[in-house]
Amino acid sequence: MATTTKKTTTTKTAAKKTTTAKPAAKKTTTTAKPAVKKAAPAKTAVEISVTGNKKVSTLRTEFNKKFPYLNLYVCYSYGRDLVKKGETLNARIPDDKTLASVRRANSGGDISISGNKKIKSLEKEFDTVFGLYVQVCYENSDGNRYYTSGTADEKTLSAFNAECEKNGCKKGEWK
User: Fold this and answer.
1) How far apart are CA 47 and CA 21, in angstroms?
2) 3-state SS class at 147
3) What is the pLDDT of residue 83?
4) Are 89 and 82 in contact (CB under 8 A)?
5) Taking the domains of the chain in order of start, what are their residue ranges?
6) What pLDDT was estimated at residue 13?
7) What is the maximum alpha-carbon separation in the chain?
8) What crossing angle do the helices spanning 157-166 and 119-130 adopt, rounded to 10°?
């Protein structure tokens, strides 16, 4: 009986060595490939971060790079009143100013701009966070410039940018 016990012990030990060696090699190969594939999609989710330290020119340039058929018209808060009265909107903030230097005294914070944000939400956020009047604009193929309103304000920035491209609107920075 002593001989039988020794053989059983030897067989179990040999079986354990074979089983543990093979899965370790498979795990190393499997985990290396998916890690590379998962890292690439993170680059496509680009957002524009808007803080008080950002210059108007930088904001407009970044916005136009992300949405090449759209532009931001950044105005002092009294620009809203001019539009309501039907007057010409001439309250544009100079490009060399920072948002902190021109915002309402009791305002402050940050905004994140992404393609899935609705135009009306973006314009309202600038009013709420910075106390500034902002309009999303575009220029049609004939060179006529427009501010978004009505149903266009219900669209996301990406969707409206794609629509402007499809309709032949001009691409490039609106100065």
Assistant:
1) 46
2) strand
3) 73
4) yes
5) 48-166
6) 44
7) 107
8) 130
Q: Given this model, what pLDDT does residue 30 score? A: 46
Mean pLDDT by 10 residues, the chain (175 residues): 43 44 47 45 64 92 95 85 72 90 81 95 93 93 90 95 96 70
| pTM for the model | 0.69
Report how far apart, in Å, the C-alpha atoms of 104 and of each of 53, 101, 150, 161 are: 14, 9, 27, 29
Angle ∠(29,35,38) on CA atoms, nearest 5: 140
Tell me what pLDDT residue 109 has.
85
pLDDT for the residue numbered 42: 39
Give helix then strand counts, H and E, for the chain: 6, 5
Q: Which has the closest alpha carbon to 54: 46, 45, 63?
A: 63
Give CA–CA dist 72/96, Å, rounded.
Answer: 15
Encoded amino acid at 173, one letter: E
Alpha helix positions (H), the chain: 2-39, 56-66, 78-84, 99-102, 119-130, 157-166
State which amino acid sits at residue 35: A
- In this structure, how many other beta carbons lie within 10 angstroms of the beta carbon of residue 157? 23
Q: Which residue, among 166, 162, 149, has the nearest Cα to 70 in the 3D structure?
A: 162
